[in-house]
Specification:
The structure is a homotetramer. By secondary structure, the first copy, chain A, is α/β, with parallel strands linked by helices. Chain A folds into three domains: about 130 residues, NAD(P)-binding Rossmann-like Domain (Rossmann fold, 3-Layer(aba) Sandwich), CATH 3.40.50; about 160 residues, Dihydrodipicolinate Reductase, domain 2; about 30 residues. Chain A is about 35% helix and about 20% strand. The first copy, chain A, has eleven helices and 14 strands. The first copy, chain A, has an eight-stranded mixed beta sheet, with helices on one face. In chain A, strands 2-1-3-4-5 form a five-stranded parallel beta sheet, sandwiched between helices. The first copy, chain A, is globular, with a radius of gyration of 24 Å. The two termini of chain A are about 50 Å apart. The mean pLDDT of chain A is about 90. Chains B and C meet through strand 13 of B and strand 13 of C.
């Protein structure tokens, strides 16, 4: 199947999430990056394009021009990824939607609610597809959890506990020039929410995605613990959901010991389940009155999930594998560049191991030289 | 940077490891699959090529022909991946090495030790690069562990405990027509080793890779627990290493409760470390007389590893992300095909969440409707 | 040292917490149970006394009579344990305090706040010692945690997350005649709090015990999820503490998959810590910017705690040991009553194991019969 | 029920395991310590007796005299605990057995196999009860595991993996005057086995206890890693069991990061199970083809075990409780001696918490002062 042509706005040198989007787009072979406005700085935009193997005539310094130009080409992009800071989501998305080009947008949707509502109107009016990368919904066991709830295995929903704890903003990182910290703590770029916008929305989205229900009311205690910080860096929230269920949500970027502690626990009157993003290949499921079970990705007792490798291989297995391929490319481009890459000697060594094992076993487990 | 051109032998419809190699090759964008002999059955080979977007004139039914033809092209492949059953590794690798095409070969190297030795001679004589995908060596924390040992943090090495336990061959799966089980338990295709060849070699390789030392002698007790199975499905091995260290290695494919339980524990006179493939983003490191530490991938206290995402994101994070991109492609190809994919409504919902949080917080945490 | 003489009110046949208090009193040998009003039902009180090896003349059916009689004896009790349902704590404690007998009282203090205040006045006026068994404060690593906070290792306190989750009241157990459930869900016996009184107070007490600070305000959402239940079975609480710290507290008796999930997490501006009662011998401690450490009871890096056994022995080690002593008593009282108790054959077997190991090792690890 | 009268040989000041035996004997109230030869040094023996509340006329400096004297008394001891170093087990046990006094003996049975065999003859000839404290067999979930195997849930046994890893002898502790290390590494006091005798016998005993089967052959690789140590401090052992099962056993006292890492894993053709002494309240049980289950002590799906408290309370719960009782005794003996002990203020605080919760909940979760 032919890969689709993809463009990107943002994600140039020094950015983080753009690279993640590019890997994600490549991984299954359904997309090919062919155009981009990787930076609003023209020099940086073109340097990034060169690095990314994007042709010079499809490297743009202006997103509006990119939208126009790509819409006019026969071989124009078939979708655009928007990976800019939050405040740029709305103008960029609008430009491409108006040009009829489908949008894949990072979250949160926009910096402000009015912008979000205007964007929703644009989507509705243009009819152009719009996707939002609430990426945690893509975990196989999150989808399994959703199915478990949907088929009634938890019974009637009672309590939901969601949390997303990090520690990277425990000190005033935004004053050190760290770019990721700077825009996330700036109301002009991030919007009214700090931790709640950056990570609270993930926890909230996941809670609603898995339960299949919606929160109707909340009571929120937001704090900026770091002196002088203008947006919340910690949030304690009480939730009331449809049909009488209740919940709590904790989002924090100042909790030492947490890297990306996104965790979801759901309890109904028949069973409960727990999942943690830092250990994503296991889902704890307990029917009332029975021992706890650990479901594993693609393991016994799970359904037909989107999964690429057999159970027991953490999904990072693929990255480990990819590292070898990448090193092989490095070594071919510059011999000796990948000293850790296994080669023929390692293969011989393995065969000697097997042969020695068989010899020893045949000799009543006698010591056998390798 | 231009991706390198890659060919593949094996890995057609119904195979497992070929798809893993393709994802790994794509992930960082350094390779492009342009040719293949995906099966020795011509029809299957060409059907696989079509699915994989490989041009018909570069789909081969015979690996030897592929080696000749590709070597003759100006735009011929720059490396070939060999993902066939073990007994075919040697002839295929030899053909490509003789043609001057670098080889990336799945493990174990060959089915027999003489074949392996002959292949090593071919590599040496031709001078063509040869890489072996001992993929577990690519895990970031395995490389961190190797560095910890290399810089002497464990002190003098004393004890190594390695194990690789699975349960998928606990019953006679090879009689059910399951292709993966059939060739792995057939001496003609797998060689003299069953579990020790298939997974014991991984544990053994990892043990030597991380310790940077070599085993000199072993005593092995191999068993075929399943009635009528011709190769070992469980191995208990004592090891003696250079410089007086000792070890144990357990490989099993009949241990209920284990999916891919590859685990390594290493102890020196100053410290010890433990790692488990099913939880690959954590490395337990304990200096004698100090509390145990959990090092995380790219986390505090670790070195400059090959890593693509920040700490706390399990590497499966990328797959979850990729699933959204793949679903976006599906939806664009066929609207409605990806019902779980987040869209504009999810974005609006997130913005309402943020806005409600801020409103509630400003009103002394009053209940606020969403 | 002579053990002190102990009396008990409540804790007769069918009770739970009385037996726990008796074991706790015996464990270190500082107490001897010599008197009791084990039940308000005379027959049951005396039968319980006989079982507990309490002399008939010191078995009482009335707690007030017990207080008078014991206060009058030269060898009267030196303290009394109160292990009745909550609503009886105040009258019983008052009677013994007035008689000058020190009180060890189970928690919560009373059924109502006015009762509690009156009791506090009685304690102050009589000057008689009064102890409350907030037993979780006795865990060695809880005391370690308190010291860690007290010496400033967490820095300035920011966030506290406390929870106590159970599932035993997920269904309407109080209607089945289960005595423990019946009084706990009855406002007349338990007071105004259901889950918050029974287990929420534990989490709250522990939070203040470890942090050494106090909550000043709370906002609470209490729910009775089980139809017809008169007291809360789930509580979601926001907390504000002195000096600007904030917290959340979740108490639930309807969360399937939780037995006694008491868990405490505390974050300051320099470090964070986590502890779970179901895994009480480990304390996770993470300084900002350093790898997480797992402190173990009496292990490396911990202070001089109240601890009875070396690190790595879970404290249940003592119970396992005690089981053997109890079975030895059973066997001596009735030979053959303890079939699992190890004996001389097990000892011989162990010696043969050692001898065979040494023999095998001396013969180059040759197989040696046992 | 009247407690039985207990004597003890060994366990005086400076000893470790004697105190553990005394707690174990006290815990369920079935024993009362009334006599002892706590040391072969008379002064130390009598000082220890005084501390332990043993009457002076029943404090002995010579175990043989103790056996004679106690056998002659009407109120003589009904059993004796032997908690000396290994080489004294045989002579002491013999003296008491010959005097008709039942023996509770620490493990391993003796220092040498001939001694053990002679002792077995004495037991047989005298008919006096003899118990060996293989204490790990007393864990509730170990007994559950034994029942699981016995009722055939694992199917036919195939593989057993046992290990007991410690790190306290990683350096030459025996040269520092540490008494526990000194006798354990001295062949004259410990016998032919070092780590295999001290902890290997525990792992071996547990393996046979749980499986209900016996090892028939072993191949052992023993090492003394610490320079100059005369007994093994690390053992790698292959096992062959009855009916074709096989096993491995690792015992080590030089593995940094391990405190008391006793671990047992058992696999049959239908299911597998795993248990670790450092996390003794959980047993992992996996039927082939089903998700892993975690059985908890006294939890759902377990049988009628010897257990003192409800599930979810780790057994250390009792020690935490006991600490409060012990501190209450301290405070009564010397007011102010137990500053951490909860009292009336803590009780009031808890009641204020409950009352505030109820008030807040009734006011739509309004913030309420405590």
């Amino acid at each position: 199947m032919r890969p689709l042509r993809l463009g990107m706005v943002g994600g140039g040198q020094g950015a983080f999430i753009g690279a993640v989007h590019r890997i994600a787009a490549r991984l299954d072979g359904h997309w090919q990056l062919v155009a981009g406005a990787f930076s609003s700085d023209a020099a940086r935009a073109h340097a990034s394009a060169a690095e990314l193997n994007v042709a010079p005539d499809r490297s743009y310094a202006d997103f509006a021009e990119m939208a126009r130009a790509e819409a006019a080409r026969d071989d124009g992009i078939e979708a655009v990824s928007i990976v800019t800071p939050n405040h740029m989501h709305a103008p960029v998305a609008t430009a491409f939607l108006e040009a009829g080009i489908p949008v894949i947008c990072d979250k949160p949707l926009t910096a402000t609610l009015p912008e979000a509502e205007a964007l929703a109107e644009t989507v509705a009016r243009t009819g152009t597809p719009f996707f939002l990368t609430h990426n945690y919904t893509g975990y196989p066991l999150i989808r399994e959890a959703r199915e478990i709830v949907a088929r009634g295995d938890l019974g009637r929903l009672r309590v939901v506990q969601a949390e997303y704890a990090q520690d990277w903003l425990a000190e005033k990182l935004e004053e050190t020039g760290q770019k990721q910290a700077a825009w996330r703590t700036d109301p002009a770029k991030s919007g009214a929410g700090g931790a709640i916008g950056d990570i609270g929305t993930h926890a909230f989205n996941l809670l609603e995605f898995v339960t299949g229900t919606q929160a109707t009311h909340l009571a929120a205690d937001l704090t900026s613990f770091v002196d002088g910080r203008r947006l919340d860096d910690n949030a304690h929230i009480l939730l009331r959901l449809q049909d009488g269920a209740k919940g709590m949500l904790w989002a924090s970027q100042i909790a030492p010991g947490h890297e990306n502690g996104l965790r979801l626990r759901i309890y109904g009157d028949k069973a409960g389940l727990e999942w943690s993003q830092e250990d994503p290949n296991r889902l704890r499921f307990t029917r009332l009155g029975a021992p706890a079970q650990w479901l594993t990705r693609a393991g016994a007792g799970t359904g037909s999930l989107t999964t690429r490798i057999p159970p027991g291989h953490p999904e990072g297995y693929l990255e480990a594998f990819a590292t070898l391929y990448t090193e092989a490319a490095s070594d071919l481009r510059q011999p000796g560049a990948a000293p850790l890459l296994p080669g023929i000697e390692d293969g011989l060594r393995g065969m000697r191991f097997v042969t020695s094992c068989v010899t020893s076993a045949r000799n009543d487990c006698a010591w056998t030289a390798l």
